[in-house]
Amino acid sequence: MLEAAPSTEAYLMLSGSLFAIGLIGVVIRRNMITVLMAIELMLNAVNINLVAFSHRLASLEGQVFTIFVITVAAGEAAVGLAIIIQLYRLKSTINVDEARTLNG
Amino acid sequence: MTPAFAVFLLIGTIAVASSILVIAMRNPVHSALFLLLTFLCVAVLFVMKGAEFVGAVQVLVYAGGIMVLFLFVVMLINVRHLPDEKVLSNFWKGGFAVGLGVFILFASVVRPGVYHDERPNKARLTQVSERIWTESRKTPAKYVYRRVNRTNANSEAVGMALYRDYLVPFEVASLFLLVAMIGAIVIGKRELSAVEEETAQQFILDRVEVEKEVKEAMSA
């Protein structure tokens, strides 16, 4: 499997499209849970990049870094979901357009 | 087309389609299930690039942990969507423009043959070399150190890198998880109202009394 794997360029294109889809999701959706899911999608696209280059350059650093990115994603999801719960208690909605008290 | 590339095309198409569905679905539960499908496809892609351990971690942490967290929160806050409610935010045109721009930027950088490099030794990803304390081959009673090489040991190689070369970042990551956990608890905690604050002690004492009575009734 190692030698027959698809090229790095194919992986980079795939991760670029996943990242763009995640970015679009972050900006266009109003539901905060879906926004958080789109952020997870973007982090996953970055992980694909790291693993592809780890294979290309034959160094383990990419895979180790991927594990750290997964750690950060787990912590970010926990804190983000806690914020969503608190926002729901405060405003009875999870619409990001409603959370604009900081609007000045 | 090699079989590996056919598998890559299939899995990549599923990943892109399900990630589009993640941001297109109205119901967050459906979004979460398509996100699960995307994570599993990405895990397959990791394994195809020789990163078996990262693929396993992807399935365990993302598909097992983070998705359950998302589904719990969806269940807790119980959002009902009205049919005529808007899904898109006010800047959806700008969002599409920015996303397409970023994709075009990436696609213009990634061209076949851009990344020229000498072919490095791929075995380094899966090979572990270690000194073990074992019986000498010549004189069986004598114990010596012998160097052994193991191939097909991606998990072991990642573990060696993680616990030997990256030990301090690993500990910092564990501290980060602790801080994130404390932060999530503090943020998600419900403030008691003034009435609840006053009655909380009496409430706990009442509960203790009830439990005591139940225990006595059970033992009698």
Q: How many structural domains does the protein architecture of chain B include?
A: 3
Q: How would you name the oligomeric state of the polypeptide chains in this document?
A: heterodimer
Q: Please give the share of residues in helix of chain B.
A: 55-70%
- Please summarize the sheet with the most strands of chain A: none
Determine the number of helices of chain A (DSSP H or I, runs of at least 4 residues). 3
Number of domains of chain A: 1
N- and C-termini, Cα separation of chain A? 56 Å
Instruction: Give, in spatial order, the strands making up the sheet with the most strands of chain B.
Output: 1-2
The most extensive interface, with participating residues per chain, is: A-B, 76 and 91 residues
Count helical runs of chain B. 7
The residue ranges of chain A in which pLDDT falls below 50 over 5 or more consecutive positions are none
CATH topology descriptor of the largest domain in chain B: Four Helix Bundle (Hemerythrin (Met), subunit A)
CATH architecture of chain A: Orthogonal Bundle
Could you say which structural class the secondary elements and strand pairing of chain A correspond to?
Answer: mainly alpha
Largest sheet of chain B: 2 strands, antiparallel
Shape of chain B: flat
Low-confidence stretches of chain B: none
- What is the average of the pLDDT values of chain B? 85
Form type of chain A:
elongated
CATH class of the largest domain in chain B: Mainly Alpha
